[in-house]
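User: Can you predict the 3D structure of Phytoene dehydrogenase-related protein? Sequence below.
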Amino acid sequence: MEEEKIYIVGAGLSGLIAALELEKAGFFPIILESTDGIGGRMKTDEVDGFLLDHGFQVLNTAYPEAKKYLDFQALKLKTFDPGAVIFDGKDSYIITDPMRNPLKIVGMAFSKVGTFIDKVKMFTLTQELKKKSNEAIFSGPSIPTHQYLKEYGFSDQIIANFFKPFFRGIFLENHLNTSSRMFEFVFKMFSLGKAAVPEKGMIEIPEMIRCQLSKTQIYFNSPVEKVEGKTIQLKNGETLAADRIVIAVQPDKVMKQLQGQFAPAHQVINLYFSTQKSFLARPMIGLIPGDHLVNNIVFMDDVSKAYSNNGRALLSVSVLYSDLNEKELVKAVQLELEGISGIKAEYFKFVKAYHITYALPNLDDLKYSIPMTECKITDHVYLAGDYLLNGSINAAMTSGRTAAEAVVHSYMPTH
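Assistant: Sure. Here are the predicted structure tokens for Phytoene dehydrogenase-related protein:
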């Protein structure tokens, strides 16, 4: 169906998956991408001998869609050890496998983080969620995660020391107001799968999908000004006539009538520092409970050696919110790092900062999947993007597939 002009706006994950599924149905889609590369929010830069992901991101190996579209072996996935290193004042301790095997957690470290009852509750919750389908999780009740944890009976201690810093880093908001549906889904995924990164950075994920495309053309540096009816107007003044359009970016950017329909996205500031060597010395996330700028830290070369090829360690630091300018922020973070590691602030050499204004969609009603009809907004325009479902790699892939199915379906004869 080469003669059909199907345009996809955006070469992020959902746009690439939409193209892949359209190809399978015999179409020759064209992707319009505003930047000079694929991946959308999933990008990796090479700077001073380091690989820098735009924001600390991981792939969960239990994601159903990821298993469908990605070859984990070819990605050479490097996994994190389950659990976390908790930095509490001058003290640090490791809790292993809190979601995978709560009852086996070594007693001492856990007692500082939570109680014996917390351990039992963790085990019960893990068992319950493993039995619950993803669809059931997302059609269940939705309350703020902090309320859910309290109602489930977890102690204030474990909420403050583990759940808050761990899930703040995933939800990118301070108070765990994110829906309990998302909490249950993420908790289940972490109890079934492992957090991982491709050996050579997160960009390898969209690259792998792009390599599966054979009939799709991608036009880079082609920002779309607006979509009206079946017409796409590019920012350079060019006008394109389309048969079908898949908008795989937040649609208010290109459809003026949708402006004001979306809450401001969750943001994150991701700073990279280099040190002589890792003070964690294990592929694990470090959590900083309480009121700090730094929410979580990871030495990326502890996870995958390829993230550093200059002999120095690469530290990724996530900060959820700050109104400091970059110079002040770097200094403040260096001082916090000195506080938790005992290593002098000046030994943390600043590499680069990413201020990610659109890191995760800010959603009230989270879903696992939507019917095809819900991603169609006119007879010719279809939507794809994780903002339709929930903020995750799994959702981005699901939405791209659903949009493509809706487009294919629109060509089927009706009886």
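Residues 393-410 form the longest helix (18 residues). The chain has a mean pLDDT of 96.
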